[in-house]
Design a protein that fits this description.
The complex is a heterodimer of chains A (about 140) and B (about 550). In chain A, about 45% of the residues lie in helices and about 20% in strands. Chain A is an alpha/beta fold. In chain A, strands 2-1-3-4-5 form a 5-stranded parallel beta sheet. In chain A, helix 3 links the parallel strand 3 and strand 4. Chain A is globular and about 45 Å long. The two termini of chain A are about 15 Å apart. With about 550 residues, chain B is an alpha+beta fold. Chain B folds into 3 domains: about 150 residues, Beta-Lactamase (2-Layer Sandwich); about 110 residues, Orthogonal Bundle (Helix Hairpins), CATH 1.10.287; about 150 residues, Histidine kinase-like ATPase, C-terminal domain (Heat Shock Protein 90). Chain B contains 13 helices and 14 strands. A 5-stranded antiparallel beta sheet of chain B has the order 2-1-7-4-3, covered by helices on one side. A 5-stranded mixed beta sheet of chain B has the order 9-11-12-14-13. The two termini of chain B are about 25 Å apart. The chains are: A alpha/beta (about 140), B alpha+beta (about 550).
Amino acid sequence: MNKKIKMLAVDSEEIILKSISRALKSDKSTEFIITTSTTSLDALKQIRENTFDLIILDLALPGMNGIEIFRRIKNIYPEIPIIIMSGFSFSGIHYNLGMDEIAVNETFSKAAGFLLKPFTTDEINTLVKNIVSKDI
Amino acid sequence: MTVHKKSESKVQRKLKYLSISTRVSILIGIIILTAMGALSILSLIKQKDDAINSICNNTGQLSSTIEKILRVSMLKNQRDEISLSISNIVDKEDIKSIRIINHKGEIKFSSVQSDINKDISHSGKLCISCHTQMPISSRSSFPNIKNFHHYRIDDKKSLVYYALPIYNAPECYTEECHAINIHDPDNGRNFSKVISGEKRQSFQGTSSGKKSLPISASGSTTFFAHDSSQKILGFIEIEVSIKKVISSIENTRRQLILLTVLFAVIASLIVYFSIRYLIGKPVKNIVSGTIRVAQGDFKHEIPPGKAELGILSESFNKMQKQLVLTQSQLIESEKLASVGKLADEVANEIKNPLTGILIFSESLLSEMQSGFNNNEHNIASTTKDLELIKQQALKIRESIKNILSLTKRKPPVFSSTDLSKIISMAVSVVEKFSNFRNIKVITTIQKQLPEIHADSNLMEQVFLNLLLLTSDSMSAGGIINISAGIFNNFLQIIFSSTGSGKRTDIAKKLTSEGFSKGLSDPEKEEISLAVCQNIIQMHGGKLEVNSERIGTFITIELPVDA
């Protein structure tokens, strides 16, 4: 275990956060220090108070949707790679979020990767490994 | 204003007009009155003319008879006899008077004593009628007309005046009876002169003044009463009353008017009740049927009738069945559309536990394959993971159950339903949806809300649809208030949102125009609202939507005893 990655996982569902933790633990080559948030406000608070190497962000969050949080994080820490995660199909997600398609696509272009639920251990590990090896 | 209110007020306005049966019976009454009235007037005129003509003919015959009777007396110069006969014939009631007028226009005999010796040559209508184109002075020359007779009618006095000429005959100017024969030496002709009894004596005693009269062989001068050249010696004028005839015609007129009115009224009543029974009743059934169907009572069937209206009733019932079928298909398709949206949301809900199941089962599988070498994992943690997998699987089962309950095809079943439970259930379903993350739903339900007779699945569909529709215009989030309570004996449910009111024309979607547009170019919201309205109408209630800038207000009213 030679690498330490500080990561923030944001999702309103505890099971997703637990699943992310469990899946990433299977990668023995990297140590993931995972902080979790179930609300957008808590996520922003964690970002302000800590330094993260990677963020996994669900788009459907109560209070403030994932696109808004994504923009805010990118405004403050543009260098932090963010993986966008969603249960909706990415092609029609603007409809589910009630947002403009162009604005959503613009945000997506700045994302480090996409994770579509339900994902497997391999899928999340491969995606995270790729981003980590590339960006960090 | 809703479609229901509009159609109801239109129908009520139209029902204020007179019914078909009343209008047709009034028309028939007017036609009968006009036709029979015109026929009666023509008939009365003809009847009156015929009666008067008949009276005139009879009077003519009577005059002729009187002339024949009096001729002998006249030839014999029995003046008293003539006067007596005239008086006897006159009966005051029908034959008012009889007058004998000489060719000079002097009344010589009359049943009215005061008329005797009156000169009517200048004023009498009898004289004037023939002498208008002839100088009145030439009294010796009467019109040379064969079978001359004259009558005139005085409508005001109800009298007929008949004048029969007394034609000159040889015995009139050859008999010596009452005439004094005078010979005119200038032209060698005899002429006659009618004179009264007193004057006759003086005539006999003197000559005629200027003219020298020849002396007869007997030594006396002979005067003849009439000249042989005269055609008409005078007239017998009879005055006959036509009061009885006029009065009889008046009676007939009154009876005809009464009969005409009576007939018109009877005919109108027959027509009125016939139309009311044969047309009005079936039409009323059809009208009430259409109203009930318009109000959402799709089970109502019009009783079968006969002939054309029977065909119409049958067509209406067929159309209604087709409408029910189409409506159920529409509700079904709307349900499927809602399900599509729900499926998307539910899929998202399923994907979360599914992720957990996948990751944790993979983790357990991986550990099993490695033979549980690592001591970190003991039986307790494995049990915990399996428990988590089970919980997530149960979550998925719940979500699937929810979606299946909406897609189940079954006919409406009306039973006592607690709407507060249905509202709470609908709210709990939508609260999990992504677009409800920023929307707070507050429910204020009156305690002990009475149960209503309703189909719980359909009502659930209504509340889910309305919640989803309201949330569509609240992209920026907000509050949806749902209140339910009893108001004016109706169970009233009010949806009010504080959303941005993105679509301010939401109310228009409920108008008939919006609905018809929706059918030709179906938009989800239009159909969804129309379906909600139909379901509410099916329950005997009404649904009103008001969209304003500050949000949307949806009011549902359901009868408690529905």
